[in-house]
Amino acid sequence: MTEHATFDEMWGRDAALRRPYQAIESWFSAEDPARLRRKAREAEDLFRLTGITFNVYGQSEARERLIPFDIVPRVISGREWDRLSRGIEQRVRAINAFLHDIYHRQEILRAGRVPVEAVARNAAFLPQMIGVDPPGGVYTHIVGTDLVRTGEDEFYVLEDNARTPSGVSYMLENRETMLHMFPELFMQTRVRPVSSYPSMLHRSLCACAPSGVSGRPVVGVLTPGSYNSAYYEHSFLADKMGVELVEGHDLRVVDGRLAMRTTQGYRAIDVLYRRVDDDWIDPLNFNPDSALGVPGLMDVYRAGRLTLANAPGTGIADDKAIYSYMPEIVEFYTGEKAILKNVPTWRCAEPEALAYVLDNLSKLVVKEVHGSGGYGMLIGSTASKKEIAAFRDKLKARPGNYIAQPTLALSTVPIFTRAGLAPRHVDLRPFVLVSPEGVSITPGGLTRVALKKGSLVVNSSQGGGTKDTWVLEE
Amino acid sequence: MTTLGKTAGGLYWMFRYLERSENTARMIETGQRIALTRSSDDDQWSSVLRASGTWDGFVAKHGAVGRDAAIDWMLRDADNPSSVLSVVKTARDNARVVRTALTREVWEAVNEAWMTLSAALARRVTDRDLGQVLALIRQRAAFVRGAIHGTMLRNDVYDFCRLGMFAERADCTARILDVKYFVLLPSASAVGSRLDDVQWETILRSVSGVGAYQMRYGQELCPRAIAEFIIHDRAMPRSLAFCAHKLRENLNYIAQDYGARLPAHDLADALNDKLLSRPIGAIFESGLHEFLVDFQTCIGRLSAQIEIDYRFYR
Prior knowledge:
Largest interface: A-B, 22 and 23 residues
Radius of gyration of chain A: 22 Å
Largest sheet of chain B: none
Distance between the termini of chain B: 20 Å
Strand content of chain A: 15-25%
Distance between the termini of chain A: 30 Å
Strand content of chain B: under 5%
Largest sheet of chain A: 5 strands, mixed
Oligomer: heterodimer
Shape of chain A: globular
Number of strands of chain B: 0
Helix content of chain A: 25-40%
Structural class of chain B: mainly alpha
């Protein structure tokens, strides 16, 4: 993997224009760079006006930031996408089967395919969910599978994001912005639409309503509040679905049901799309200090009178330690080989693995098992000797807290710079909806791009940007 | 479709604050205008500060009243929760919270108001720029109003916006009158006194009523007619009667919509049918100041009752 040159999604490995990018190439070479620069600024103004901003943790709230947007679309052919989406669907179905199993009979542990201690001693395993049957049998209503590409046919799943994945509003607003700024592009090229995501989400959530709900289920989106970094997305989704956006203090348990305080008294909610982590949703059942949640919510849930999307306890499926068992998990529940690859992973809790990792730190990426957002990780190939030494100490002190993976040669896609097109590393987060009606994947997803030359970190909190992602109609 | 209590409260306050930004701009404009056209002293700015309801805070911070300090305080001081900069920020924060209840046009108008005004008010405003900045504040408020008018459904959400706007406006007009009430009293008016002319003009300008007054009552400024105009004239969009009428009207729409009359409706009725039904002569007789205090108390109680009846906070 590491020995090959980087795969560029526009130019391949040997500077031969790849088919999906033909339209983009001819558009770009005919364009006046000055006009494109103007357009890029226009896009930024549009985002500011819409208010699609985010707050960075640890910075004063004085300044709201925009995630930089790059105007060059990332293109995926229809054939590539169809294969990808088969792989994602297989994986997401396996994850749901795994979650049901792990909170019921634990067959996979009995069969010895996943070691007992990987689950039993895992903080992401929620004992409160043992024996609970989520309405419709769905655990992960919304999944954002993080994929990276390293070659023509090589896609790896980097993370499964089965808790409360974010970013879908960027997928939608990026497309709207491109349609607004470059309508001519969409006249030449048939791109699969993404705009139905909010109505699909609504439909999918309604299909998971608790049994016994008559008529149209009442759906709400639970946000931690307007100071949360993803607040824009929460209000965006509630708005587009035409449902209420609620906070903990709008809610309480009334007559055994979750209810929201309206201008005319309390009204029951059937389905709660919560963008608040497990720990915070119910101070009686989880973190007692939480002011973001609703006392007793978990009791309503366990009584089967409320759908929570995603279900509590799904973190055990996207935990980085469990991740390394995903090929076995997929095979165990689907009876098929995994279509999408897993990145080879060393679990540092295992002495042999730890020894290998310590010997090869400069070639590896080391991540915290429970970390996210690109924080607390080491990228050996770009880290200084000092950083590596410091990380070595942390690793020795708490090996069970880390996993390590080889540095993948992430594919690049061109971005628009002052000097013209320039390749930058990208990843891809497609958004997956699961309901008893089936699995639905919006074509494309969110492409995150490391704007700094050579950088492999695509996280928005660390200088990453986004792109519109096209799946071609073929 | 249901409306969250929090949302109703957010809309109500968002519109109170937007209305306040415009009222404050108008008061500064008036103070400035009088200062430029008449021989006037800093006493003029004391009245303006009192009318804006921020006198106490200003004195606590600055002690003595000066023109520049007064203008800066009202326009952009973060210590003044009613400065234009503060209220536009608060209005925008409220808009973010209630965003799902707003149309895209309204949200963008509020967001743009905040972006434009926080840039325009980032530094102390020079005399040369003052007129332009004040015009910008009023223009941005008008954009929001236009967006509401042109794009929002006429439902309870709209009614809560209007309630906030008219409660704020009623309060503001009453305060403007109360600061200068004594110049309207028959005993105080030395006929044709130049000083009184200035005071009367100040009142009319503060409610954008100079031209309207002339259309209704002619060129001559007469204190009784001014009082009648600002208290009772239902055609005057900033009069007490107009605001009270609109408050009742919007509350009634909600009552129809929800099929329920609540205590706030009785308060709105009393405001219209008892307090404001008194003829101007009777008001003067029993005391204009007392009347204005009563009116402000009624608005305060009505506002508190709306909060309770429509579950803004609990």
